[in-house]
Amino acid sequence: MASRMTDAPTPRAAESPSTEAQSAAPVVRVLLTTVDGADLTTALATVSRQVYDPTPDVVVVGLESGEPPEGVTRVDSLEEAIAGSEADIDYLWILHSDARPRPDALGALVSEVELASAALGGSKLLVAGTREELESVGGSTDVFGEPHSGLDEGEIDLQQYDVVREVAFVRSASMLVRRDLSQGLKGLDELLPPIAAGLDFSQRARLAGGRVISVPSSEVYHQGRCNEGDRGWREQAGRLRAMTTAYSLLTLLWLIPYDFIVSVLDSVLSLLLFRWRPAVHYVLSWGWNIYHLPSTIGLRRRFKPVRVLGDEELFRFQARGSVRLREVGSELSGRILSAFDEDQAITRGTRRVWGSAGIWGAAIAVLILAFAMRSFFFIGVPNVGASFPFEVASTSLDRWFAGWNDSGLGAPAPVHPSIGVTGLWSWLWFGAEGAARTLLTIAFGFLAIVGMGRLAGRLGYRGPGRYLSGLVLLAGPGTAILAGSGSWLALAAAASLPWAVRAVFVHPHDVGRGRLSHIGWAALLGIPLAAFSPLLAVVPLLSVIAWKVLGGKSSNLGLALIALLGAVVAAPFLLGDPAWILDSGRRLGLSVVELWPVLLAIAFVPMVFIDSATRRLGALGVLLGLVGLLAVRLPYGGPGVEEAALVLASFGTALIVAAGLDVVTSDPRRLMGAVVSVTILFLSIGALGNGRLGLPGGDLNERLGFASTLAGDAGPGRVLIASTQRGDIPGEARPGPGFWYRVVDGQGMTSDEVWLPAPLAGDDHLDRALQSISGGGELRPGELLGPFAVDWLVLLGPKFRLDEVLIAQLDLAPVPFDPDSRVFANPVSVPLADSGTESIWLRSGTGFAGESGSGRVSLAVNEDDGWSPEPGPHDWHATVSAVDGVASFRGAGLNVVLAASTAVLMLSSLGLLFIGRRRR
Amino acid sequence: MKYLSLVIVLALGVAAFLIPAPDAPEPGPPVGVEDPPVSICAIEEGSGRTTEVVILSTVDGPTRLTLFASGQPAGTIGQPTGASGSAIIPIVNVAAVGTVGGLIEMPVSSSAAGAIVVGAESMSAESCAAVPTQRSFITGASTIGGQPFELHLMNPYAGEAVVELVVQSEAGIESNDRFESVVVPARSSTVVDFAELIPGRETLSIAIETVKGRVLGVGRQGIDGESAVWKAVEGSQDWYLPIPKGGGSKRLLIGTPSNVAVEYQIDFYGPEGLEEAYQAGTLGPRGQISFDLAAITEEVAGVRIISTGPVVPTLWINSEAGLAITTASAVEATRWFLPGAGASVGGQASAVILSVGIDGATVSVRSLREQSLVRTIDLPADGVVEIGLETADGYLIESSGPIVAMWIARRDNAGIAAMGVPILDG
Prior knowledge:
The complex is a heterodimer.
Chain A: H1 2-7, H2 19-24, E1 28-33, H3 40-48, E2 57-61, E3 73-75, H4 78-83, E4 91-96, E5 99-101, H5 105-115, E6 120-127, E7 134-136, E8 140-141, E9 147-148, E10 165-166, E11 174-178, H6 179-184, H7 194-207, E12 212-222, H8 233-246, H9 249-272, H10 277-291, H11 293-303, H12 312-315, H13 323-340, H14 345-348, H15 350-353, H16 357-372, H17 374-378, H18 393-400, H19 418-428, H20 433-458, H21 465-475, H22 479-484, H23 488-502, H24 515-532, H25 539-549, H26 557-564, H27 571-576, H28 579-582, H29 595-608, H30 612-633, H31 639-660, H32 668-685, H33 700-703, H34 706-709, E13 718-723, E14 734-735, E15 740-745, H35 761-774, H36 781-785, E16 790-795, H37 801-805, E17 813-815, E18 822-825, E19 833-834, E20 842-844, E21 847-849, E22 856-862, E23 867-868, E24 872-874, E25 877-881, E26 886-889, H38 893-919
Parallel strand pairs in A: 1-2, 1-4, 2-3, 6-12, 13-16
Antiparallel strand pairs in A: 4-11, 5-12, 6-7, 6-11, 8-9, 10-12, 13-15, 14-15, 16-18, 17-18, 19-22, 20-21, 21-26, 22-25, 23-26, 24-25
Helix pairs in contact in A: 7-8, 8-10, 8-11, 9-10, 9-13, 16-20, 16-21, 18-19, 19-20, 19-24, 20-21, 20-23, 21-31, 21-32, 23-24, 23-25, 23-31, 24-26, 24-38, 25-26, 29-30, 29-31, 29-32, 30-31, 31-32
Chain B: H1 2-18, E1 38-45, E2 50-57, E3 62-69, E4 72-80, E5 86-90, E6 98-105, E7 111-118, E8 123-127, E9 135-141, E10 149-155, E11 161-169, E12 172-174, E13 182-184, E14 188-193, H2 194-197, E15 204-212, E16 216-223, E17 226-231, E18 236-243, E19 249-255, E20 262-270, E21 273-283, E22 288-292, H3 293-296, E23 301-319, E24 322-327, E25 333-339, E26 348-355, E27 361-368, E28 374-379, E29 384-389, E30 394-411, E31 414-419, E32 421-422
C-alpha cells in the first residue's frame, strides 16, 4: 500500500499548496448519501481527512434515524441537497457512505475535472477489503445502457487504467459534478438504484453538453453495501428507464423493439445455461417501467430544456451490439469449447492451442462427425427401422405415466423408458418434436465424442485418441450394426454411456470435494442411460469393479451404485414385458463378424507391455468389448440383451482406441497399438459414410402417407405390414406363418410404437386371422382384418405366400401407391373407435374422444379394465360408455408410482447438483 | 496381473471368435395351402339365352353366387345345398346381366359347380373352375366360315388383371395389338372377339399368360346357331379323356403352349381294352394336331395322352346331336361330380366313365336331387362305359378305383359335353 501511495499520481491541487492557489481552488460540497449498513461516522471521518482546501462542507443525504454529527447538515433527498446548494459552490461531490476515499481523492477529482473542463468526473473504485481489486474505472455501455466496465472478474489494479479519459458513465458511489449542471439536471433519479442512477445522470450530463470523465488518480474503496455490484432486476429496470429518459423519440422507436428482441434472445440463451433468472428479470423490468411510465414521461419533459446535444453524442461512447448477448454467447461458446478443451488449451492462447494433442483429436473427430451427420442437416433423421418421430410431448409423457401403450393393438404394458425422456425433451422444445428429434440426434453425435474424451480425460489420458474414440463408440462393431438396422436408441445409448461411466469416476483433485455434485451427476446421468438401453445401467458398476481390480484409482463404488438407481426409469417397462430381456426369439438376429474379437485382442497385446496406465485402460476396454461381443454370440437373452451387448462392445472398443492412440511414439509397442487402433478407427468410420450416423435411409411414414391422406372422417386406422425379411418390418415384429408382421398407426409410426408389448387376446386373434389368410382359404381377408381397424395391408420385400393368396381374393384392393411394396386397401375395416352411430370418435391424446351419447363405443384395441368410463370387453377388444364423450385409460398404480419415482430421482439429482454447485 | 489380464483377454477373444453366432430368429412355420372353395363360371343371360348354375357338394351347407360386372357385384344370391347336396340357381332370378362372370362360394372344397347355358336352338355346359392358374391354354377354336369364337376372360377378384394372349393358328403366331396386355379390370369380364379380329382361321389355340392378377379364360364357339363352351386349362403331360359313342365329326385336338417341340403318345381305351401307344408323334412349337376319333370307332372309348411337355387335349364333337366341346382331365380320381348332368334344361343326358386303374372298379352313380337314386355298375380294368342319366341337379360318381368321368346331353339339335369335376380331398 505504501508503494502505491508513492506511485500514485499526485493530485494537482495537492501539489500546489501555495496560499494563492488554495484560495483559487474551487469550492466543493460533499453530498454524503447514506447507505444501509454503512458506518456514517467512519464515512464522515474519511471525508474530513481529505487533503483539500477550502475544506468542503458536508451534507448528509437521507439519514432516516439518528442525528448527524455536529457541523454536518442533513437533508432528506439528493434533489433537495442539490437544490439547496448555494451559487458559490462550484462542485458537488456525491459520495456513498459505504465509500472510503483516499485522502487525496477529492483533490484529484477536482483537479482533473477542472483540467479537462469536464462536467462530471468519477473516481476509480476499488473493492474494499481486497488487495487492490478493481471495481470500476468508469465504463462504456451498449445502446441499451448495459454497462461494460472492460474489467475482468477479480482484476487487480496495476495502474493499467490510470489515464484520464472520457467515458460513457461513472458510478454514483463517488462522482464530482458541477453544481450548476447538477441543479439544471435536478440531480439523480431517486427511483433508480445506484448504477442505473449513475448511468442516467452521466447520460443526461453528456446530452446537456458536459463531458464525463474517469479520474483514476482519485481512488475510492467501495464496500458495495449499496449493492452496486448486484445485477438485479431493479438495475435492469433502471437502465431501461435511463434509456427512455435520455434518447430521442426517433431513437426509441427502433430501440425499444430491438431491446425487446434482445431480451427474448437473452432469456432463451440463458435457459440453455440453465439460468431462469434473466427471463424473470426482464418480465419484472418491463413491468416496472410500464408502471412508472408516467413519471418517466415527466422526467423527459423536465430534461428537454436542458438538452443541447443529440443521441449521437451518446453513441460515441457505446459498444456495438448487445453486451448481454455477447456475454451469454461467449459463455455458451466457452462451455462448448471447454467440453473439448479440458487442458484449457484454448484459454491458454491460440498459439498453443494446436500443441494440445487432445484438441487435434477433437477437431478431427468433430470434422468427421459433421460429415457423418450431414444428412440430418439437410433431410432430417430417417424414419425407418426403429427410428421414428417423437409423439406429441404431452401424449408421450401421458403414456410414460402409465397411459395406454398404443403399439400394435395396444396394451396396458408400460412404454419403453426412452419415451419419457423424448417426451420431456420435446416439451422443453415447446412441442416442436421434429426439431427436438433432429437436434437430439445431432447432440448424440457430439455427446459421444465429447463423452469419450471427457471420460478418458478423467481417467488421466490426454492424447488424441480420446476424442477420436468417440467415433468408434458411434460406429464400432456393435453400434454400427444396431444403427444399420435402424436403431436410433443405439446412438442415444452410446452417447449416454461414457457420461454415466465418467460420473462414477472422481478426478483426483476432486476427491473429497463436491460430494453432492458427484452424487447428483451419478444419479442424473444414470437415468438417460437406463432409459435408452436399460441393461446398460450396470455398465458403470462393471467399469468401477473392473477398474479397481485392474489397480486403478479414482473410481467410486458408491457412485456406481447410485448410478444404478437410474434403472428405476426402466423398471415399469421391464416388469411389464420381461420377455424383452429374456426371449431370444425376439432378437433382431444381429451378429458381429469374427474379425472384431481378434482385432481387440491384437490391439491389447502391445498395451500389456507398455506402462500401467495404458495397460489399465486397454484392459478395461478389451474386457468390456469382449464381454459385449461374447454376450451377443450366446443364445441367451432377448433384444434388450442384444442391444446392450452390442453397445458395450463398441464402448470397449472405443476405450481400446483411446488407450492405443493416447501416446504415439516410435516405440514399437506403442506403434503397434496405434496401428491396430487406427485400423479399428478406419473400420468403424466407414459405417458413418452415409451421412446419417449409420442409420439407414428412407421414410416409411412418407411411403405410408396414403394411409392418413386417404383416411375417412373417422381418421386413419392401422396399417398391417408383412414381409419375410425381419429387417423390413419397422420396430419389433411378430412371427407369422412364414413371414413377419406388425400393425402400425395409419397416422404415421411414432417412436413409442417401436416396441411391441407381449401379445394379448387381440394379438392372438390377429395371428389366427393371418394364419387363415395365408393358408389361402379366405376369400375375404379384408373382412377378417377389418375388426382390427386395418385399413391397409402392405407387403414388403420379396414376394411370398401372402402375395399369392391375395391375388385371388375379393375385398382387399391392390393399389399402386408404392413402387417398392404391394399395397392393398381394405374398404371394410372398422374405425379405431366405433360408436355404432354417425357420431365420429377420434384419437385424443392416449385415448379417444367424440360426441357423448347413451351407447357404447367399441375400441379396436386390446381389452383392459383400465379403460373408462364403464369398461367392458367385447370379444377381444375394449368397449366403453359414450356418456362422457371421452375414452381414457390409466394403468396400474405401481406403474404410476414407478414413473413418478423417476421424476423424483431426477429432481433430487438436480437439487443435489444445485446445492453442490452453490457450496462450491 | 499383467499376464493374467492377457490370459483372460485371450481366453475371451478365443471364445468370442469360436462361439458361432446364434441363428437369426425365424418366423413361424408356413401353414398348409388350401384354395378357397370357390368356382368361377361363365354366365350368359339375355339375347335369347339363359344360364342355370348348378352347385353340388358332399355336405349340406350355404352357397353364394355373386355376379360381377364393371367392377361391382351385379347381383348376388345365397342358397343352401340342402340335404341332397345340390342347388340350382337360375340366373334370371338374380339379374339380367349379359355376358359376365359369376363367383360361387361353396361350403367345402369337396364341392363343384357347373353352368348350363340354354338358348332357343343352342345348349352348352361347362364345369366351373376353381382358382385360375397363371398360365392356361385353350385349343380347338375356329373362325373359319364366319364361325363366331369369343374368349371370355373373367376376373372376379379385387385386383386388376393383365394378360398376354399368344394366339396360334394355321397361319402361325397371330399378331394383333388386342392380344397384348389385355386388361381385365377387377370384378369384371373382358370378351375378345376372335371372329372380328382374325376371321377365317380354321385352327386356333390361345395361350393365356397372366402378367398380373388371375384370370379364367373360357372359349365360346358357335357354329350354325349352336354353341359350345369350354375353359382354358393349364398344360399338363398326362391326360385322360372318355369319348362318348356316336358319329359325326368327333375329333381329338391336341395343342401345346410350349415354345419347343413336344413328343406325345396316345393310348387308346377301345372295345378291345387298352391299346398303348396307339398313336405317337411330335407337336411342333405351339403346334396343334387333330385326330378323327369317329374314324377309329363310334363306340364309347377313351384315350390317355402322355407327352414330354405341356399339352392340352380337347374333345370336339359336331354332329346331328349338336356342337359340344370339352377339355380332357389331367387327373384321375375315385369321386367325381357331374354338375348339371341330368338337369331338366339339358335334355337327355349320359355319363361316360373311363376306368384307368389296373383293376376293375365298382362304380356307383348317385343322382343328386330330393330323392336321390344310386346305381352301381362294375367296370373292368381299362373299361369305358356310357350310362344314361335321369333327371337330377347333378351326379356324384364314386368308384372303388380310379376313374375319369364326363357327361354329355342332347336336346333337339343341341348338345353338351362337359368333363366332370374330380373330388380330390375329403
